[in-house]
Design goal:
By secondary structure, the protein is mainly alpha-helical. It has 2 domains: about 10-120; about 120-160. The protein is built from 2 helices and no strands.
Length: about 170
């Protein structure tokens, strides 16, 4: 065997050895990649479960916060509506009173101007005449009552004097 044959044999066995090493390397590399991928999938699935739970918790707490905020807004809105309604009613009542007073004052002023310009109305004249008549009748009634009381008083005094004289001895009736 010559050096060429030996070199060829050695080269052939190195090629076979390197092929086996290369196949082992590729097989090991495939197993490593497969295990890395499996670990990545497992880690990814675990992270997905964890983040899903965190997201669900976040969404649930956010929902509770939003619900409580909305409930607070509803309460605040109802309070504000109640207060503004009361303020509007008070304002309208104040306006009604103010405007009513102004209208009444203007009406009285207008009636006074009318009375000055045209004189008292026939109704006012009738009312005034009726009031004067009642006052005269009341005065006359009081005068007559006073006279009647005075007459009664005088009659009582005369009766008591007559009784006194009748009861005295030695006096003549006469």
């Amino acid at each position: 065997m010559g050096p060429l044959t030996e070199s060829m044999t050695r080269l052939c066995s190195e090629i076979v050895a390197l092929r086996g090493a290369r196949l082992a390397f590729v097989r090991d590399l495939g197993q490593d990649v497969a295990s890395l991928q499996a670990e990545f999938r497992h880690t990814h699935a675990e992270m997905a479960r964890r983040t899903k739970a965190e997201r669900q918790g976040f969404v649930k707490s956010l929902g509770h916060e939003v619900a409580s905020l909305r409930a607070g807004f509803r309460r605040a809105h109802a309070d504000m509506a109640r207060k503004t309604r009361a303020e509007r009613r008070a304002s309208v009542n104040h306006l009604k009173k103010t405007v009513g007073g102004m209208r009444r004052e203007f009406s009285l002023d207008l009636a006074g101007a009318h009375r000055v310009w045209f004189g008292p109305s026939p109704r006012e004249l009738r009312v005034k005449a009726e009031a004067e008549r009642r006052a005269r009748e009341e005065a006359e009634r009081q005068r007559l009552e006073a006279e009647a009381r005075a007459k009664e008083e005088a009659a009582r005094e005369q009766a008591s004097k007559a009784k006194e004289e009748a009861g005295r001895p030695g006096k003549k009736k006469g």
